């Protein structure tokens, strides 16, 4: 296989998971602006996700968020899974939600009250039941747990409570299932978050065992954090489980992946390629909020941005890079990386798409499909999906 | 008058304005946790604000937010004003809101569509009408206007639109009225905010005229920004109109003033004192969100925190400081400032309160008053106030 | 003229000034690593700068830094100017230095001691004398003035002192000369810098008059600051005088322009083009430290990076962008910008260079020239140039 | 023992190590301002350190930095140790330095060239020899290793090299010796630092074994990082080895401990107390640069600041705090912490000092001692100590 053929093969086999909630409404604490045509049910979300996969060819799975995607019972999840398969999709990661019940005002699994902790744990275990029903491999845990004021609760005791809950969930996992632990610097907790950084997530995962892995959400770091360094380290430690892709200029802005700093996304994907992470062992998920832009084309664009970053990463001339690095030639080594980054990979990706039987421009194809008009016309009445439970 | 007497006099005459919305529910984009007893109407908010003033003695005015505090008509605002006066309060700054209507998804006075700009301007002018009815001196303008993506709109054209609207509002002001322009680095806009920093607010205010002043919200800066420097500069330029006090560890966390960095609040108050800003020319307002803590005592605590910072600032030995500064004695000058900061001013403030006929500990007095239990019992049914219109 | 021809013409006429000090040694507080072949005199720096211009065609001027480039007397500067002209160069901006004398430990023009202030002012005025001798248009003022500890000196009084010095220098300027005032958040001052942000520089320049303009150094901002917004604003206010290009991941890292965030450099250049700033009214200067990489090729690479960002900015389809912005089509507007950014402009620039009679790849041409080997062989002995006075 | 007696006992037994290099000159990359009276030799540094201990009573050990404190041979270190003991001091942590030799331009133990790595490792092993001679327990490793440009070197391979060196040093340790691994976000590396955060240091220490511990330098984090959280976690993991105390507003400013954010220092010390870390297992060291202020009194002030933060932390009413936390009373819990913080502990510390036979005000006592004048008069000629090797 030639080098270009290998790059193309890698791009064809890439899988980028889209999140069911990105198809629904979202916003800031100031306002959620509604958009016409937004899905009202998990089924309609899957309908939209199928369009993204239809036009990109690389978005075959959809992440669910419980309870935002709750259906009647476990059988209902199995039916949802079938519904997805009929549309060429599979259900992906199950996302737990222990932050929107009134009980969780001061935390969930780290709450001072053991009754609240039990309730939260119950939800997490229910999510594993759902995984069994959907055939999902991964449970993603993000905890909004934390404190807003110094002294509000005991940082260390909260770690003990967290550890206890994580162990209980880990014990419940099937042998082919994984727990993905996500960290986040802040928001909604404004003083101390209980899993604020990769180190904390890593320390817990290490103790849990090989089925526990860390999730890197690209918007969850302090300013100036070198994310690709973390990626390289976690791959070296065999503890990188997944990405939540999005982009940000300030805090957790949840803009389209690659929109704010495309060079950073490229550097991240380079470390993924370098560390052998371009496999199914690492789940590549989007986790974004399309507050003001049209949702489906924004997701298509994000998928394309991840593809473009991946293509550039694959095009890095590894031999030339290694040679320049070994010689300590700073400028030459940097230039090898930049050569790949500065390449316009859009023609290559258009070619890959055509070889996959797709239109070369997914955004244009989506626009031409009439889907946007169709959902605006048909999805009238009911309650639009959003972050509310 | 002795030095201590002068300090006490300054503390007695201090006025800290509380915001009507802090008495209602608030939260993050993830969840608004409701609290029992929260007011359901502007009148009930004033009832609560009266308690804060009753116990602290230095919170005589309440800021309104339109439309969150909308009443039937202009006569209604006059009645609200009377209602306040009957409770020992006055209505303070009128806050406009051009960020929660569906029309404002892409901005208000900077929106690309002139019809939306006209609508937003209409609201701002309506707020001046309300000021006439309430007798308020100040109109506070905060614009959520901005863009989320590079290229989304033209940064410079938006400045032209902003300028046009500001001039139109300025023209409408009465001779005793002022326009306070607030800046904010980001949120809800995630790429470019149209008034992101003090420089932008200052440049506009300079062109508008002497009735236009800048508002410093302590949570609206980039990490590392030296806020007291900005305060010193704006006072030197006679362009400091008001403070929105709150505190933050990360972004615009809106925690209680003084909770996250009491030393910073002290440094800010020192520059206020130094620059002659401890007068009615500068409005000292709280602008906070009590997402998880009880609201009224949190506001009382915040008022006390501002008082304590002010007391410490007033206690700085100006002569000793000036002498050390003039000699270039870095450590001695710093030590003079720190001596004041390290002083426990709570006994002094307790004394000031007792001399004003108040209980020495406002939080304890509030707890003992039974108000918290009363509002939980009485405010049943109806819709709790919050950020929704 | 076709669109492409216009772009090429703009690229051909671009002028990027290189700083004399970037040819010398530099480092961090931990260590200055010396490089073989580094110039020992201002003349040798010009020899190196001539190589950069020879290979890029767009670096015709060199900024001097006094006293790092001090020569014997004013006649000496005139001779240096001639020397430059003989090599196809001109002397550019004169940079003052009031931060390396032992007297300046607590500041220069803001120092508490009037004797130190007079000394500093004397140096600034001397720099105008040098400008007269070199024919330089611009005096660049960067002050390291500030304080390390709260209370160390009076923030406001320091502004008064600053203002006094700036006025004295402004008065001394010839009618065709300009004063460029640079701001910087921090370093070497660690608490309050006397000109920390664009607002402060702008406020002073406004009072000085039309010959005073603001310098934007791309490394001198708080994390998260939107630099292109500042550029757009200063152009709108006709107060943008110059750029100091470099790049950073953390603080004032002074890496090669475009190396850390090429997308940001593109956005900045887009606002320059949009605001009509691609003229000689704005000086485009590099201000970098090549601590570990070879200096001349690093400067060539930086010039090329600025060219590439400029080319992409010029390629933005203004009509399409305006149309999408007017319709509020967020994704389409962003896509227009990204289309230009994602274009590989290296072939276009290679063509421009060939049309200018240059080699298409300046780095390769420099390598092939043998200059690097020549200076290593010839520049033996003496004291290498660096930041020391 | 009463509560106050226990607090006093804890304060009396506290030990804060001062760094030999803080007595010498330091500065920024722009300038090192020399101060009169600065030591010229390790012996003179110990003379100064003895003054700090004499006046504070809690600074009995001094950290050495090799080669800045290099003496002739191992016997010389033993003599230095005796010299210290004669002055009531002991030699403390040995700090290695693999960042100031020309060979280390691209790194030390992570350098691409194995010869440089061997040289660096040799120095680290030499430092253990010195520990044997001085009787020091701890070896502190800070690596400036990293890269300035993306692609410059391979992030992951550098981790492998780092790991190899750490293991080699660990093997060499005596059974009573420890390795302290320090992390730092950036500077002097400006793209990727090889040990940038606590997670990286922790991961390495975990693999090395129980004698490897993490050092928390309070100035080495990204903006917004919650340092006390890290402290709580490392104590929970039994991996907190030491502190490098200093303070900062922006980057690694190295200001006096407690000068920039005294509330943060208090929160850190609270977690230390809470986590049982106020023992000799955690080394409390200063690591500061007194660039513009007098050095000895600045160090005394820093020691006092750490003492004051410790005193406040010890005064937190643990029972009340625990009760409020358990009930989820956010305001009450925060108030318990703030009560301790707002206490003026200077009288208590004055009392502790008097009970130890010391003057109540160490700064005043130092000033009165005449030492400052003495060293200015006597230390004439020679080369002042500084960061140079």
Distance between the termini of chain A: 49 Å
Q: Which stretches of chain A of 5+ consecutive residues score pLDDT under 50?
A: none
Helix content of chain A: 40-55%
Number of strands of chain A: 10
Strand percentage of chain A lies at: 5-15%
What is the CATH-assigned architecture of chain A? Answer: Alpha-Beta Barrel
Keywords (chains A, B, C, D): Isomerase, Manganese, Metal-binding
Domain Xylose isomerase-like TIM barrel (chains A, B, C, D): 75-252
GO molecular function (chains A, B, C, D): L-rhamnose isomerase activity
Enzyme class (chains A, B, C, D): isomerase
Describe the structure.
Four copies of one chain form a homotetramer. By secondary structure, chain A is an alpha/beta fold. Chain A has a single domain (10-378), classed as Alpha-Beta Barrel (TIM Barrel). Chain A has 14 helices and ten strands. In chain A, the strands form two sheets. In chain A, strands 1-2-3-4-6-8-9-10 form an eight-stranded parallel barrel, surrounded by six helices. A two-stranded antiparallel sheet of chain A has the order 5-7. In chain A, α1 crosses α12, α2 crosses α9 and α9 runs antiparallel to α13 (362-369). The longest helix of chain A has 21 residues, at 114-134. Chain A is globular, with a radius of gyration of 21 Å. The N and C termini of chain A lie far apart (49 Å). The mean pLDDT of chain A is 97. Chains in contact: A-B, A-C, A-D, B-C, B-D, C-D. The interface between B and D is medium-sized, with 26 and 26 residues.
């Amino acid at each position: 296989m030639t080098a270009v053929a290998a790059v193309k093969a890698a791009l064809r086999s890439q899988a980028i998971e889209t999140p069911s909630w990105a198809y629904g409404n979202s916003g800031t604490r100031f306002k959620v602006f509604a958009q016409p045509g937004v899905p009202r049910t998990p089924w309609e979300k899957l309908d939209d996700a199928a369009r993204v996969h239809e036009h990109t060819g690389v978005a075959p799975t959809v992440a669910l968020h419980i309870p935002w995607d709750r259906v009647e019972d476990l059988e209902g999840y199995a039916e949802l899974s079938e519904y997805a398969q009929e549309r060429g999709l599979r259900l992906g990661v199950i996302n737990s939600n222990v932050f929107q019940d009134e009980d969780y005002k001061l935390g969930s699994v780290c709450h001072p009250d053991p009754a609240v902790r039990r309730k939260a744990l119950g939800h997490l275990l229910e999510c594993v039941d759902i995984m069994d029903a959907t055939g999902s491999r991964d449970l993603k845990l993000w905890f909004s747990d934390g404190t807003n004021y110094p002294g509000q609760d005991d940082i260390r005791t909260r770690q003990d409570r967290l550890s206890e809950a994580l162990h209980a969930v880990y014990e419940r996992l099937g042998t082919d299932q994984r727990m993905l632990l996500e960290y986040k610097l802040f928001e909604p907790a404004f003083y101390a978050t209980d899993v604020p950084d990769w180190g904390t997530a890593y320390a817990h995962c290490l103790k849990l065992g090989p089925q526990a892995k860390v999730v890197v959400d690209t918007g969850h770091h302090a300013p100036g954090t070198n994310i690709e360094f973390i990626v390289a380290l976690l791959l070296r430690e065999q503890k990188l489980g997944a990405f939540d892709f999005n982009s940000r200029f300030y805090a957790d802005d949840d803009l389209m992946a690659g929109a704010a700093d495309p060079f950073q996304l490229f550097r991240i994907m380079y470390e993924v390629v370098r560390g052998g992470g371009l496999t199914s062992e690492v789940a590549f998920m989007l986790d974004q909020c399309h507050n003001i832009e049209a949702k489906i084309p924004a997701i298509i664009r994000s998928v394309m941005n991840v593809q473009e970053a991946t293509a550039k990463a694959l095009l890095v001339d590894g031999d030339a890079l290694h040679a320049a690095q070994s010689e300590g030639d700073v400028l030459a080594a940097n230039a090898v990386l930049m050569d790949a980054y500065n390449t316009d990979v859009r023609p290559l990706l258009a070619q890959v798409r055509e070889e996959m039987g797709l239109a070369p421009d997914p955004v244009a194809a989506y626009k031409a499909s009439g889907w946007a008009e169709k959902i605006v016309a048909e999805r009238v009445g009911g309650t639009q999906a959003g972050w509310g439970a």
